[in-house]
Amino acid sequence: MPIPAWPSREIDLRILVAEDDPRIATTLGDALRAAGFVVEREADGEEAWFRGDTEAFDAIILDLGLPTLDGLTVLKRWRRAQRNAPVLILTARGDWRERVDGIEAGADDYLVKPFRIEELLARLRALIRRSAGFAASQVDIGDLTFDFAAMQVLRNGVAIPMPPQEYRLVAFLAHRRGRAVSQLEITEHLYAQDYERDSNAVEVLVGRVRKRLGSHVIVTRRGFGYAIGEPN
């Protein structure tokens, strides 16, 4: 599975990769980070279950053949606990019964090994869009159009140049249209856990976006966080 040279970067969303094969996990991690995702990895079923049960992820890539606790059991536990992050199952076996078991347990999609990284990324992006309520890769909010496929923000059809981190912020908020997102949640999703940042990094980033797009675009909801647009 060669890692393609990506021409552009995806919004920084937080992905859990539960995969015990070091080679596959490294390939996945490198490709996902190159596409702009924040990646956390677990190689053990119990640890993967705990992370998915106690932390927020935008999507999870789950291998069925995990040690200690198999992937199907992990998935069933998450769904019983109402952990609803979209889950893409990886399996080395092509048995249709196993696929049916995975879907019935709550999986959103699956891929059989070996797979193409390009297909995995396309499926992952589609799962994240659908979980956010967007079947299409483009959404209009006010006079702005967020094109998640092209990774652009447009006003009246004209693209607005934006540095990557500013784009990731507005795309992250647009994916949660109308919902107030706390500074802590933004920090967890835009930065890796070991990334050094100032305590006011989010406030500074919001200020830069407001100067670029207009002060009305990102709304501050006192005591709750930041939001873009109204609920659907």
UniProtKB/TrEMBL annotation:
A Pfam match: Trans_reg_C
InterPro entries named in the record: CheY-like_superfamily, OmpR/PhoB-type_DNA-bd, Sig_transdc_resp-reg_receiver, WalR-like, WH-like_DNA-bd_sf
Gene3D superfamilies per the UniProt record, alphabetical: 3.40.50.2300, 6.10.250.690, Winged helix-like DNA-binding domain superfamily/Winged helix DNA-binding domain (1.10.10.10)
Source taxon at top rank: Bacteria
Keyword Phosphoprotein attributed: yes
Residues in OmpR/PhoB-type domain copies: 136-230
Keyword Phosphoprotein on entry: yes
Residues found modified as 4-aspartylphosphate: 63
Response regulatory domain mapped to chain residues: 14-128
Residue ranges: DNA binding: 136-230
CDD domains to which the protein is assigned, alphabetical: REC_OmpR_EcPhoP-like, trans_reg_C
GO molecular-function term, one example from the UniProt record: DNA binding
Keywords annotated in UniProt: DNA-binding, Phosphoprotein
Name by which UniProt lists this protein: DNA-binding response regulator
